[in-house]
Every structure is written in structure tokens, then in C-alpha cells.
Amino acid sequence: MTERPRPSDLTEDQARDELARLADLLGRANAAYFRDDAPVMADAEFDALKARNADIESRFPHLVREDSPSAQVGAAPSEAFGKIRHARRMLSLSNAFSAQDVAEFVQRIRRYLGLSEDAPLAFTVEPKIDGLSLSLRYEGGRLLHAATRGDGEVGEDVTANARTVGDIPTGLEGAPQVLEVRGEVYMSHADFAALNDRQAAAGAKTFANPRNAAAGSLRQLDARITRARPLRFFAYGWGELSEPLATTQFDALDRLRALGFSVNPRTKRCKDASEILDLHAETEAARADLGYDIDGMVYKVDDLALQDRLGFRSTTPRWAIAHKFSAETAWTRLEAIDIQVGRTGALSPVARLVPVTVGGVVVSNATLHNEDYIAGRDSKGAPIRDGRDIRIGDRVEVYRAGDVIPKIRDVDLSARPADAEPYSFPETCPECGSPALREEGDSVRRCTGGMICPAQAVERLKHFVSRAAFDIEGLGAKQVEAFWRDGWITKPSEIFTLKDRYGPGCPRQVKNREGWGEKSAENLFAAIDARRTIPLARVIFALGIRHVGESTAALLAGHYGTWTAFRDTMLAATTEGGGEWDALLSIDGVGPVLAASLVTAFQAEIDEIDALTKHLSIEDAETQATDSPVAGKTLVFTGTLERMTRAEAKARAEALGAKVAGSVSAKTDLLIAGPGAGSKAKKAADLGVQVIDEDAWLSLIGAG
Ligand SMILES: NC(=O)c1ccc[n+]([C@@H]2O[C@H](COP(=O)([O-])OP(=O)(O)OC[C@H]3O[C@@H](n4cnc5c(N)ncnc54)[C@H](O)[C@@H]3O)[C@@H](O)[C@H]2O)c1
Ligand SMILES: [Zn+2]
């Protein structure tokens, strides 16, 4: 998202436009979230936009729109359901995000009620269940109807669905004549996981989190589908009543419990802000072990007579507030550490976690980086997390930032099981048993099995067919893994002999495999054939050599131009040194680590590399301008350039078809030396390389 101006910097016209934009954006997000159970943005983003809207409205009160998002609860009911008008409105809650917000909430209430600092003011504190709210209307002890919140005034009739929820009694003993019970429908983590497994197995859509699953399951037009979904219900409030339930929030919940409703067992009465905050912290710590999602704590003035006096604002009660937990982190338990072996043999530790919702997504795996990270050290041996190590069984803090893979940030030593032992990182590959070694200066331990290691072999293949490499239509990671498992494709070269071995006329055929048919098999062979002609850079990248990413592959391709030139140099160079090695190092962007990786990979794998390229027609790298005086020449810049930056000079030279190297070697054609040139100028002189100054360079390229 682009940076938007701060609300305090907006002109009136800009504010009007921005409020219109936010009304539209938030309106659509609300409908997607509440009506379609398919959010289009993260909750944190939604909350931030909503706060921005409120901020602008407070600066320009006369611009507040009729359809302002601040004045809305939820979204209008879907047309697919019958409608039910609530006897008393179903509202939202205002939010607190910090201890200070909570203190201000308490202060506001005291001021509103005219209570002195030391007058008692108790609160009932309840977990905020992350599901969807439901209103149940009982008359004469019978369940009459059930409605979702909708827009707060009118909800959707989900009576038949509600009757299928085990926690919702259909008949009550000794209840008031009219009783509207309000609460949250939710799904446990275990039921959510099982539901998603079943959905995936049936090829149906899976849910992003338990809240969406609960909402999507309750709001079914066919209540038989709801019946098959394991929904639960916690009661936390009420609407219309023919007689009061009690005189306090806490006792009223007790009464509901006595009538047969589930009331959250962590509900407590607190006498002041400090007790409230303690309970908030305690519950946040226990969050991972609850087995269902809560996203904060709700504080409600306990005395119902005071609740009445406080009343409501347009969309929220004055007597309650939701104190949210921090969204992007959560505490949970580390159940196991698995080691994954990657394409280059790297052993990566993966944390298996008791599932926890972090920023709206259920997380059950997180990366642990490497063995130092687990031990509480960085790559230089300095302590991280104050040196606290991570052990199986520990309570750990998980965080997500943006879309990146979840990570483990911290560990709670006070919750460490007595028998937890320091994690000992494997010294052999869990996949092939080869020794896993750690090179000097490398934080990663690597399997030395090479292609005999099944994990490396299959990861190599997946890389080979990936988007930026061979990108063969119909042969993605999944398919290539299946072929690999059956031994039909064990290395990249075999992709190009697949048709000979498993094509038409062969005893076993691709078209007879599960998930394949005549047409798809034909398409696959055609797609493979289409890739026999392929650009040089893609081939270099596809080889999957460590440190050779897309841009390095393009750089090498641009430097060598042809496959033959590249292959022959890699084979001729040795890490012991010598002319070929120096030439490799003289390429700008190639350092000794990358060079060594290339040279060793070629020496170890030349048989497979040649077997592969025999099937290919590799296109030379884009030939650059040839009619300039420096086309095809290798240049080196040194010293200070006065008329342009080094980057600019390099770009100009490359645009004219020159290669720019980082160091002088026998292959250098020209050294451009500014003031302060040192050892390079001397080396050039020793090697008899032509040396010119910046002015001569500029006139050479016609830019003088
Ligand atoms: N991602 C999106 O696009 C998107 C869009 C709209 C809303 N949202 C999210 O939805 C939330 C706002 O929705 P909201 O207006 O329902 O407010 P809310 O969920 O913050 O609070 C109100 C709701 O809390 C629930 N609740 C749970 N436990 C409760 C308890 N013990 N007592 C009282 N109420 C309890 C009730 O259902 C009530 O309606 C925000 O978290 C927002 O991020 C996200
Ligand atoms: Zn291995």
C-alpha cells in the first residue's frame, strides 16, 4: 500500500475524498467479512483503516458521512436468509489496546457516573470469544428463534441452524417468560482442523481460521450441513427480558449457567484496573492452551443499575470495552522440532506448535532458523534472547510480520517443563544418514549426501521445474514429486527421456497414472518438448547450484554468452587458483564463495549436467550492442570518477556492450583509472593492460 498523508496533513477537500474512499473500502471489507465469511484484508489492517477514518472524522466533524463506517455495526443481513428484527439492538464493542486505554475507560466511567476515585467500581471480566454473535429468543422456556447480529438492527434468521448446536438448549426450566440470550458461536481448534481436513479431502473450500469456519457453518441455508459441523456456544449477555436475571453482570451470567447455557469458565469479577490487567495478562498467557480462539478480554461494569445509567453510544455500550490481545504474536507450546533437508542439503529446524491463531491465521509450524538460533546465539556467537535456548515442551512466542513464514521470537523459562533438555542438533542427515557438516563461517549444517540424499534430489527437481527455471506446464512441484516417488524421474535429465520410457507404446504410461489421462499426458510431453529450446540464464538457474539465484544466473549468462563458454570455464577453473579462477573472480558480482560453489558443483555433477544439456538447444544470452568501441571488451574502473558515479559508469559501459569486471586480470582490456587509483593500476601496468583516465573514457564513448 502506498503511504497516505497523515490525517493532520489533509486539506478539507482531501479529507472529504479520503472519507469517501474509506467508507467504500471498509464497507466492502465489512460485507466480505460478516456476510461472505471471506475476509479481503487482515484484521489489523481493517482496524488501522477504521482508526484512520475515526481520526479524520474527529478533525472534520462536518464531513462525517451518512454511511460512515464509524456508525455501523457489522453488515446488512444477506438476502438469502429470512430477517429478524432484534427487540434490542445488538452492538459492537469499543476497543482498548493498552493499559492506558483501560485506565482511561475506567476514568471515563467514574466521571460519567460522578464517582470519586475511591468509590468501589467492580467489573466482570470475560474472555472475548472470536466467533460470531447470536441472539436466541425464548418465550415460555421454548426457543422461538435465533438471529445473527446482521447490522445490529436486523439479523439473519438461523433458527434451524441454531437448533443443531449442542450447547444451545431448545427448552429451559424456570426461565423468564421472555428471554433473549446473546452469546458467541465458535469452533474449537481441534474441530476446525478436522473440518478443514474433511473439506480438503472432499475437494471443498477450506477455512482460513476458526471464526470464518464457525460463521460459514452456522450461516448455511441447509441446516443439515450445520448439523454436521461441530459448533459451540458461550452465553455472555442478553437482549429483551420480561424480568431481570440478577443485579450484577456476574450473577446474571451465573443465572444463565444455571438455566443450562455454557458460560466461559474464565469469567471473573475484578475490583479495579490492576486486577483487570493481571487477569488480561494471565489469560493471554493461557490463550494457546484454551483450544479455541479468543482475541481479547471484555470488561463490563458489574452493577447492572450502573450499566443502565451508562447506556449506549451509537454503536457501542459505554459500560463495556474489549481489550484486545496483540494481534501479530501469540504464545503457544513447542511440541517437536523437525529437521527439513533442502535442495542444497541445508538442515532447517522447523517448530511444530500447538496450533494458535496469529493475526487471523492458524499457525502450527514456524521456522527456527538454525542450530545457533535454537541455542540462543547469533551467527557470531553473541547471545540472543539473553542467551535463552529453546527446548521441546517450552512455551514460545510466535510472530508473523506480513506474509513471511512465522517465526519464534521468545521463550518463557518460567513455564519450562522440569524434564526439558537442551536440543541437540543432528549431526547426520535425517533423510539419508550422511554426515551433516558445518563449514567454517556458515550458520547452517548441510547433508553431504549430494544426489544420493532423497531430500536433496527431490528438492532439486522441484527447483528445476519452478517458475523461474524450466517452468514446464503441467509439471509442477506436486507432479514432479509424484514421478520422483515412483522412480520415473529421479534427476532433471530424465524429464527429457520421460516420453521414451513412459510414453505411447511403453508398457507403463503416464496417461494411466492417477490424476492423468490421454490428453494431459500428451500435453505434458508437448510442454516438455517446448522447453528443449531454452535461454541460457534459465538453464544456469535451474541447475540449482548454491548461491546461484536468478540474478546471478543472468549475470553469468550475460558474461559468458554461450553454454559452451560457460561450461568449459567452470570445468577448467579450480579453486586452487590459476588463470581461469582469476577470470571468474574478475566478474563484477562474483566473489570467492560463489565461484567455489560453481566450480565444485560442476566438477561433482558434470555427468548429469551433460546428460541434461544433450537434450537441449540452449539459446545464447542476449547479444549486446556491437558497434561501440567497447563492445565485447572487459573494463575495470578504479579510483574516483569525477563526472559520474561508479554505478552510472558501469551501466553506461554495459549498455555499450562492454563487460565490467571488479578486478584486473589478463583478460582485462581496459582500465579506467581516476585519481587515487592504487594496486589495480599497478597490476594493469604489470600485465600490459591499457590504462586511460576519465576524460579519455568519456571521449572514447562519445560523451565528452
Ligand atoms: N478483516 C476484515 O476485513 C474485517 C472486516 C470487518 C471486521 N473485522 C474485524 O471484526 C472485528 C470488529 O467486529 P465487531 O464490530 O463485531 O467488533 P468486535 O468483534 O471487536 O466486538 C464485538 C463482538 O464481540 C463479540 N464477543 C465475544 N465475546 C464477547 C463477550 N464476552 N462479551 C461481549 N461480546 C463478545 C460479540 O460477537 C460482539 O458482537 C475487528 O476485530 C475487525 O478487525 C475484520
Ligand atoms: Zn541427506
UniProtKB/TrEMBL annotation:
The keyword Acetylation does not apply. Its cofactor is Mg(2+); Mn(2+). Belongs to the NAD-dependent DNA ligase family. LigA subfamily. Keywords: DNA damage, DNA repair, DNA replication, Ligase, Magnesium, Manganese, Metal-binding, NAD, Zinc. SUPFAM superfamilies: BRCT domain, DNA ligase/mRNA capping enzyme, catalytic domain, Nucleic acid-binding proteins, RuvA domain 2-like. SMART domains: BRCT, HhH1, LIGANc. DNA ligase that catalyzes the formation of phosphodiester linkages between 5'-phosphoryl and 3'-hydroxyl groups in double-stranded DNA using NAD as a coenzyme and as the energy source for the reaction. It is essential for DNA replication and repair of damaged DNA. The keyword DNA repair applies. Residues 625-704 form the BRCT domain. Zn(2+) binds at residues 429, 432, 453. The active site is at 128 (n6-amp-lysine intermediate). One of its GO terms (molecular function) is metal ion binding. This is DNA ligase. Pfam families: BRCT, DNA_ligase_aden, DNA_ligase_ZBD, HHH_2, OB_DNA_ligase. One of its GO terms (biological process) is DNA repair. It catalyses: NAD(+) + (deoxyribonucleotide)n-3'-hydroxyl + 5'-phospho-(deoxyribonucleotide)m = (deoxyribonucleotide)n+m + AMP + beta-nicotinamide D-nucleotide.
